[in-house]
Amino acid sequence: MKNSTKHLEKMKIILGIDENSENKNLLMASLKTAGFEVIDTENGVVDVYLAQEKLSGIKESQKFKAPQSIFPSIPRLNKVFQFIELNYNQPIKLDDIAKEVGYASAYLSNLMRNLTGKTVINWIIERRMAEARILLLKTNKSVKQIALEVGYQNTNLFYYQFRDRHNSTPLVWRKTQRFQLEQIQSNEF
Is residue 69 domain-resident? Predict the structure, then answer.
């Protein structure tokens, strides 16, 4: 009885898939990995279900405006961006990333600049700044604590790079952003 109730609480999607079994198997495996329940039916039609609890989680994250990745979707650079995402809060260098992804440093640097318009170091800084902004808004940690937490060993460098990108010190930015959020929230009620 409980299983049939769960089945009714699912969002159903029907897909028509190309008859090429390799493409079909790849798509079905990808959907399963993403958390969908996939049921192959006749005539190349596939039923895809997303459980209600997952659907609720998606709606909830959209409601709270869960942060999206700051990195562009460029397949050739996915490993680079994954490495930055996993290590931005540690001291990392271009050579570390190049070695990890199997490129020469100069090649990676040129590839990154040509495909994104930014350097590898710029992307590391962008990721650190994104996390710093979140911590400034959502916590009362000191700027020094935040700088260390996002990967800066030198607080002065953090101040310099933050000011360069935001035209404000971290504390002034925090105060201004919190004030603006309070104004928006008070106008909603």
Answer: no
